[in-house]
Structures are given as structure tokens and as C-alpha cells.
Specification:
The protein is an alpha/beta fold.
Length: 645
């Protein structure tokens, strides 16, 4: 029994051992699998680390390369700096040497001994310069005196009319004639109400150097050449045939024609108001001139215009004296400080106020006070007084150009449109004209930093996606805007430029601005045919430099004479090309060479800030107004001419 138990115990131990071995044999493969997985994971991590190390090595190499390049650049700068320092040292040494030499010379006996001679020579040179200058002034003065004597002896000369323009008082005919010739001639003084010097030069194709009065007295009077917009020689001779034999039509008119009631222009061609016509023919030496005149009373007192004539007379008799109201011709012309014949026969008070809004409220319902303003100030300031005077009467060309020339433009783009747009609400109107351009063109638009918005940019992009849009300060009005656009323009790339702007002119009535703007734009971009004809003109006729509206051809310097003359001096405009002729409103087509010539010398000019300025600022006198006139002078200096449409 005992042996048997022992054997069983041994057998059980063997069985347990076998079970343990079996379990060990089954768990061993699992341990080997885990080890393989761990080994694979370690291999991936090592590869990542190797890749990152390689990337860091590449970055370090690039940084080292950059560092080496910067080191080379720094060494180059150091070399240049050493060379500059060396050069400065040499210059300083030379300066010290020269200074020492000059000091020695100035303290030498020879220099001191000849000091008096140098003073004499210097004084002699200065005296010679002064003598030359005085001789020139003396020559001009003597010529002016000689011309003044001839003018004073002429019957067409009106000294009182000249005194009013010069704002002086004198009864000496010769003295007034001398002052006329020695005053600022850029103001275009008129020796007679029916003689306009600039008009005479333009109509009769005289040069700037020609003396209009001298030409008239020696040639023009005999040939009955036109002298004034308001004196139609042909009409006057038709109305009074015997005037054809008169040696001087102006003198004949004031001595004969006016006294019998003939107007200086055809009344069917020129609008003449009854009030102005009545005043123009008044004879102040008659008893009637001292009597009550209902037209004058209403003209001076607009608040009484609703009264019938009988009540006007009653009001004049009982109130005029106490209320300082004017109702007679004698009192009126004393108030106006003029003679009847000095009144422009077509003066229109309503249009004068509409053209110059700075006067509209000041003289509301007082038309004759507007006339007084014109006679006292407007003449000297060059203010137009009605729409005919504003628009002019220049005849447009009737030339037709062959559009086959459009096939020979070469590589240059026909047109570059540059547009300054202060008033963004005018984009629809301006883009309507741009739609008439069927030839290739580029569009540059300048917006103002105080008026632009994202909507206008979106509208421009929708119209022409490749339009170049710039935003700048409101400096120099439209001219300053054009300048900013030309900063980025390649002039040689284009045949011509069309310059446009959103025009409102706050100093002028809206009705006039609308007509003005329409005339300017229609002449250059009014239709597809007009655009093609204008580009064909530029190609076919190489003399054409500027194309603009004939209705807005202007020759008036107005109150810009100083800046205008200074600008012409700056551009070295020759004497024969200094006559003023320009497109009033600055919307025109300009040959590329002219645009470049006017822009380059003044490309860095700092124009006047135009924000928050009064009406008078926008009317005239700024550099922009002078440049507007200068286009014509530079064009002529380059050998081109206008094409008036």
C-alpha cells in the first residue's frame, strides 16, 4: 500500500510537470510575436529620427549658405565703405590744401594790392548789366510812348473805357494811352468797347509779337477787318452801305450808326433784351434821360417787378428818394460809372448769374447791379457774361478722314483713356461714352480718397476687368488726378490719350454744366463713328496734336496770367507759341508725345489741396488752371496744331 501511494505521488508530479511544459510550449510563440512587433516599431522610429536629422542637416546647410552669402555682401559693403572713407579723406585733404592756398593768397601783398582793381572790374560789369537792362527798358518805353501817341490821336480810342479797366481816373487822353501800353498786357485790355485785341489777333491770324492796335491802325481799319465779337462789319455795311467808304468802321459806328439806332450786330443772330437795348442807345444829353423810366426802375428794384407801370411811377414819386432807389437813366449811369455805349449789347444778367454762382445770391433780383459788377469787376477778371460769350462762335472743322488708316497703326494701342472721377455718381454717364470706343484701348481711372467706395470699383471692374484703378488725395482737381495716373503710364505704348473727368463745376449753374460737359464729350467720344474719325485723324494727319470741342475753344487767360506766364517760362515756350488757345474744360484727345512733354517736367509737382475750398478757389488762379491752358502752348511748341470738332 505504501509503495503504491508513493508511485501515485510521483506520477502526479510528472503529470503536473508535463502540463507546465505544455503551457510553456504554447506561450512561447506569443512572446516571440511581441518581440517582432517591438522590433518593427523601433525600426520605424529610428527611420523617422534619421529623416528628421537629415532635414535638419539640410536646413543647417542652407542657413550656412545664406550666412556665407551675407558675409560676402557684408565684406563687399565694408570694402565700399573703406573706399568711401578713403575718398572722403582725400577730398578733405584736398579741401585743406585749397583752403590753405586760398588763405595764403588772400593774405598775400599782391591780392591786397589788386583788391581795388577787382572792385572796379566788378562794378564795371554790374554797371554794364544795368545799362543793358535800362537800355532795353528805355527802348520798350520809347516804343510804348510812340505807340501811345498814335493811339491817343485815333478816334477809335476810348480813354474812359480804358480808365475803367485800369481802375483809374484821368481826363488826359495821352496819359491814359501811355498807361494802356505800359500796363500788364496779359490782361487783354480793350482800347474800345468794339475792339478786342486777342479777338483781333486770332481772327486775323496775327502772332503774339504783333501789336493788334498798330496793325489795325495801319492795315486793318482800311480793310475793315473784324475787331470784336460784338461788331459784325458785314452786317453794319449792309445796314448802312455808305459805311463801306469809311476809313474806320468803329469810329463811324459811334459817330453815325449808333446815333440812328443801328445795333453793332445782327439782332436776328444775337439775343438782345429790351432793357439792355434801351440802355445801349440812351442819349444822356436829352431831357428824357432825367425822367422816370419804368424799365430801369424794375431792373434796379426786382422786388417791385409785380407792380403795374402806373404803380411803379407812384412808388418812384413817393418812395424812391427816401429809399435811395434809382429810376432814371442819368442816375443809373452815374451808378454804373459808364457810358451807354460801353454796355455789351447782348449782356444777359440772368445768364451772368448762372455762369457765376458766387454772384447769384449776392445780386438776386437786381439785374442792373449784376451789370455794374460786370463793368466794374467782370471785364477785368475776364468773366463771360452770357452763354454765347461762354461758348464762343468758333467754327468746327468739316474734314473727313479715311478710316482705312486705322489698319496702319502698328504696334501702338490707339487710345489710352485716363479719367479722374471725383464725383462717382457720374460713372454711368461717362461709361456710356466709353462704350463708343470700338478700337483697342486701355483705361486708367483715378478715384479720390474722400469720395470713392467699393461699389464704384465693382462697377468699373464689371465694365472693363483690366482697368487700372488708383486712389489719391484730392490735389490739383482733374489735372492732379491725370498726373497721378500718368505716373504709371508708358507713353510710347499709345498713339493718343483721351482725358476725361467727372465734371460738375460747383461755381456754375447745373444747366450750363450739362451743356458744357455734353459738348466736350460729344466732340471726342460722341459715337462710334466720331471715335474712329478722331483716331483716323491722328494717324492720317501727323500735324494734329489735340482734338477738342470747337464750342469750348478759349483764348482767355482770365486771372491766371502770373502762374500761366511762369509755367510757360518753366517749359521754355518760345515767344511765337505763347498765344493762349485751349479746350476749356480739359476733356480732349491728345497725342501721346504731347502728354509726355507736359507731364515729365512737372511729374513731381505737389498740387494744391482742393478739399473744403470756397467757390472762388475753384473758379480760377490755381496751377491746375494754368496747366489746362498750357496744353495748347506745348502742342504748338512741338509743331502740332488743334483739330476743332
Amino acid at each position: 500500500m505504501k509503495v503504491t501511494s508513493t508511485n501515485l505521488h510521483n506520477e502526479n508530479m510528472v503529470a503536473d510537470k508535463a502540463t507546465q511544459l505544455k503551457r510553456a510550449s504554447t506561450t512561447k510563440p506569443k512572446s516571440q510575436s511581441s518581440l517582432a512587433e517591438a522590433k518593427q516599431t523601433s525600426s520605424v522610429d529610428i527611420n523617422d529620427l534619421l529623416r528628421k536629422v537629415q532635414e535638419q542637416d539640410a536646413t543647417i546647410a542652407r542657413l550656412k549658405q545664406n550666412f556665407d552669402q551675407q558675409a560676402l555682401t557684408l565684406n563687399s559693403y565694408k570694402s565700399e565703405l573703406r573706399a568711401a572713407n578713403s575718398k572722403c579723406s582725400n577730398i578733405s585733404a584736398r579741401y585743406d590744401t585749397v583752403a590753405a592756398q586760398n588763405y595764403a593768397i588772400l593774405n598775400s601783398r599782391t591780392w591786397k594790392a589788386t583788391a581795388w582793381l577787382r572792385k572796379v572790374v566788378s562794378a564795371f560789369i554790374m554797371a554794364a548789366r544795368k545799362a543793358k537792362l535800362l537800355a532795353s527798358h528805355s527802348k520798350n518805353h520809347n516804343e510804348a510812348i510812340e505807340k501811345a501817341e498814335v493811339l491817343a490821336n485815333s478816334h477809335m480810342f476810348d480813354p474812359h473805357y480804358v480808365c475803367k479797366q485800369l481802375n483809374i481816373t484821368s481826363n488826359n487822353r495821352l496819359e491814359v494811352a501811355r498807361l494802356f501800353y505800359t500796363s500788364d498786357r496779359t490782361k487783354n485790355l480793350h482800347p474800345s468797347p468794339l475792339f478786342d485785341c486777342e479777338y483781333y489777333k486770332t481772327k486775323n491770324k496775327l502772332t503774339r509779337q504783333d501789336d493788334a492796335i498798330e496793325h489795325f491802325l495801319t492795315i486793318g481799319a482800311k480793310e475793315h477787318l473784324p475787331t470784336h465779337r460784338l461788331f459784325d462789319n458785314e452786317w453794319y455795311i449792309r445796314a448802312l452801305p455808305e459805311a463801306a467808304d469809311a476809313p474806320d468802321l468803329i469810329t463811324h459806328y459811334f459817330e453815325v450808326g449808333r446815333k440812328i439806332g443801328i445795333t453793332p450786330v445782327d439782332p436776328s443772330r444775337v439775343a438782345i433784351s429790351p432793357l439792355i437795348e434801351r440802355l445801349f442807345f440812351y442819349d444822356l444829353d436829352t431831357p428824357e434821360a432825367k425822367e422816370f423810366d419804368a424799365l430801369i426802375y424794375v431792373g434796379m428794384n426786382g422786388d417791385l417787378a409785380h407792380l403795374p407801370e402806373a404803380d411803379l411811377r407812384h412808388h418812384f414819386d413817393h418812395h424812391a428818394k427816401y429809399e435811395n432807389r434809382i429810376g432814371t437813366a442819368v442816375d443809373l449811369f452815374n451808378f454804373l460809372d459808364c457810358y451807354p455805349h460801353e454796355i455789351p449789347i447782348d449782356f444777359n444778367p440772368a445768364e451772368y448769374a448762372a455762369i457765376h454762382l458766387d454772384l447769384a445770391e449776392l445780386y438776386q433780383n437786381r439785374p442792373l447791379e449784376l451789370m455794374r459788377h460786370y463793368l466794374k469787376h467782370g471785364v477785368a477778371e475776364g468773366r463771360p457774361y452770357n452763354l454765347s460769350d461762354l461758348f464762343g462762335d468758333y467754327k468746327p472743322t468739316e474734314r473727313v478722314f479715311s478710316e482705312s488708316s486705322l489698319q496702319h497703326m502698328g504696334e501702338r494701342t490707339p487710345l489710352c483713356v485716363i479719367m479722374h472721377m471725383y464725383y462717382t455718381d457720374m460713372w454711368d454717364e461717362l461709361s456710356g461714352y466709353l462704350k463708343n470706343i470700338t478700337l483697342p484701348f486701355d483705361l486708367y481711372i483715378n478715384l479720390v480718397d474722400t469720395t470713392w467706395n467699393t461699389t464704384i470699383i465693382s462697377e468699373i471692374r464689371a465694365f472693363k476687368p483690366d482697368a487700372r484703378i488708383y486712389i489719391s488725395a484730392n490735389k490739383g482737381r482733374d489735372i492732379g488726378g491725370f498726373w497721378r495716373l500718368m505716373d504709371s503710364t508708358k507713353f510710347d505704348q499709345y498713339l493718343s490719350f483721351a482725358i476725361l473727368h467727372a465734371k460738375k463745376s460747383p461755381h456754375v449753374a447745373d444747366t450750363i454744366v450739362t451743356t458744357w460737359k455734353s459738348d466736350l464729350l460729344s466732340a471726342i467720344l460722341g459715337s462710334e463713328d466720331i471715335v474712329r474719325q478722331n483716331i483716323a485723324a491722328m494717324i492720317e494727319d501727323p500735324k494734329i496734336g489735340i482734338i477738342g470741342s470747337a464750342k469750348w475753344r478759349n483764348t482767355d487767360v482770365a486771372s491766371n496770367s502770373k502762374t500761366y506766364e511762369d509755367a510757360m517760362d518753366f517749359y521754355n515756350i518760345s515767344e511765337e507759341n505763347r498765344d493762349c488757345e485751349y479746350v476749356s474744360g480739359t476733356m480732349m484727345i491728345v497725342r501721346s508725345e504731347i502728354m509726355k512733354a507736359i507731364y515729365m517736367p512737372l511729374k513731381d509737382y505737389d498740387f494744391e489741396d482742393c478739399d473744403a475750398k470756397s467757390l472762388s478757389f475753384h473758379m480760377d488762379g490755381q496751377m491746375a488752371h494754368s496747366i489746362e491752358r498750357l496744353y495748347g502752348n506745348i502742342m504748338k511748341e512741338l509743331g502740332y496744331e488743334f483739330l476743332w470738332r
